[in-house]
Specification:
By secondary structure, the protein is an alpha+beta fold. The chain has one domain (41-167). Helices cover 31% and strands 32% of the residues. It contains 1 helix and 8 strands, in the order αββββββββ. The strands form 2 sheets. The protein has a 5-stranded antiparallel β-sheet with strand order 1-2-3-4-5, covered by helices on one side. Strands 6-7-8 form a 3-stranded antiparallel β-sheet, covered by helices on one side. A hairpin with a 2-residue loop joins strand 4 (109-114) and strand 5. It is rod-shaped, with a radius of gyration of 36 Å.
C-alpha cells in the first residue's frame, strides 16, 4: 500500500514581502542627510533674501532723508553760524519754507526741526557730518566768504556704504559772522 505523505512546506523568510530593519535604517539615514542639506540650502537662500531686503530698505530710507535734506538746504537765505557746531547741527531760514528750521544729528538719529517741533528723518545713523564749504563768490572788496556748498554724509545701519550729497544753495548766504 502506498502511503501518500503530505509535507507542508513553509515559505522561507526570503519570500516575505516588506523591508528589513537594516533597509529601514539606511533609508531613514539617507532621508535625514537629504533633509539636512535641503534645510541648509533653503536657510542660506532665505537669509540672503532677507539681508538684501533690509539693505535695500535702509538704502531707500537713507536716500529719501538725503533728498529731504537737499530740499531743505537748497533754498536757504540765512544760516545761524553761532549755532553751527560739531558738524552735527545747522540752523537756517529758507526762502520757500516757513519758520526757523534746523537739521540736527543726535544719538544716531537725524532730526528736522521746524519752529521747535522736531521730526525724525532717519534713525540708525552713524558717522554723520555736516560741513559748510566757504568761498568768495561775489568777489566784492570786502573779501567775505559765502556758502559755496554744504556737504552732508552719513552711514546707515549695517549698510557698508556712505551716503553723501553736496548741496549748492541758490542764494548768496554769508559763511562768516
Amino acid at each position: 500500500m502506498t502511503r501518500l505523505l503530505f509535507i507542508k512546506i513553509q515559505p522561507s523568510n526570503r519570500d516575505q514581502k516588506g523591508f528589513t530593519l537594516v533597509e529601514l535604517i539606511v533609508t531613514l539615514v539617507l532621508v535625514g542627510i537629504i533633509g539636512t542639506f535641503t534645510t541648509l540650502f533653503m536657510y542660506t537662500g532665505l537669509n540672503g533674501y532677507l539681508m538684501a531686503k533690509d539693505t535695500s530698505e535702509g538704502a531707500l530710507k537713507a536716500q529719501i532723508a538725503l533728498d529731504r535734506i537737499s530740499l531743505e538746504l537748497r533754498d536757504i537765505d540765512a544760516i545761524d553760524l553761532d549755532t553751527f557746531s560739531n558738524d552735527t547741527r545747522i540752523d537756517y531760514t529758507s526762502v520757500t519754507l516757513p519758520g526757523n528750521r534746523r537739521i540736527l544729528y543726535n544719538v544716531g538719529v537725524i532730526f528736522l526741526d521746524v519752529d521747535g517741533s522736531a521730526h525724525a528723518l532717519l534713525d540708525e545713523v552713524s558717522d554723520f557730518t555736516l560741513r559748510i564749504i566757504p568761498a568768495d563768490l561775489n568777489y566784492y572788496a570786502d573779501n567775505r566768504n559765502e556758502v559755496q556748498a554744504i556737504d552732508v554724509s552719513f552711514n546707515v545701519g549695517d549698510i557698508e556704504r556712505t551716503f553723501n550729497a553736496r548741496i549748492f544753495p541758490r542764494n548768496m548766504v554769508p559763511a562768516e559772522p
